[in-house]
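ok new one. same drill as before - structure tokens go in, u give me an amino acid for every spot. 203 of them this time. try not to just spam alanines like last time pls lmao
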């Protein structure tokens, strides 16, 4: 139990650090993904997935069907402290849009020095990066997965996936609601989070 609490604390600190240090989120160009990768100074190639795993979408839909009230994220530092309450109409719309994402794929060449990876071929990345020195391998093995944002409430809120895969069995993902505040997108409320190694479909 103590070990699990320590792991949870470490993950929270990592996420907290990223939230304060990351570049402003740009849902038009996804440039924030490249800016985050550039912070890994020893890596030659940015790997990103062509699409979201269907089981992640299914787990998010399951969450949306079971919940309508989403507390404000611990990482949100803005003025709007009220929880996000999703209406039935919004719930229906979000689920329909999530289902569409199962067939959506990103193009290659989105970023400089990048390589598009099929979600069924992630092992090919680790076969390359595992040959690097340990200090370099840990950072350069990351495969970034991100969704096309789903906007609602006149474009003031977006549902967006941010996922990093570190190995064949280790993935950290957050599918969260973002709020546009002072012309910038900020993480507002958690929808679906998986910080472990288990199958997302099991949550």
């Amino acid at each position: 139990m103590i070990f699990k609490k320590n792991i949870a604390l470490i993950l929270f600190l990592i996420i907290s650090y990223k939230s304060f240090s990351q570049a402003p989120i740009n849902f038009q160009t996804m440039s924030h993904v490249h800016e985050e990768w550039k912070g890994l100074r020893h890596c030659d190639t940015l790997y990103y997935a062509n699409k979201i795993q269907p089981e992640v979408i299914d787990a998010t839909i399951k969450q949306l069907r079971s919940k309508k009230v989403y507390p404000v994220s611990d990482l949100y530092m803005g003025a709007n402290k009220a929880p996000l309450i999703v209406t039935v109409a919004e719930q229906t719309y979000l689920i329909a849009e999530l289902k569409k994402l199962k067939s959506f794929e990103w193009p290659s060449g989105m970023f400089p020095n990048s390589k598009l990876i099929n979600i069924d071929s992630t092992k090919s990345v680790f076969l390359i990066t595992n040959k690097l020195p340990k200090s370099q391998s840990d950072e350069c093995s990351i495969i970034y997965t991100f969704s096309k944002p789903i906007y609602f409430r006149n474009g003031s809120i977006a549902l967006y996936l941010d996922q990093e895969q570190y190995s064949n069995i280790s993935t950290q993902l957050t599918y969260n609601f973002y709020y546009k505040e002072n012309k910038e997108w900020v993480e507002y409320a958690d929808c679906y989070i998986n910080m472990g190694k288990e199958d997302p479909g099991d949550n």
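The chain has one domain: 2-202. and btw The mean pLDDT is 85.
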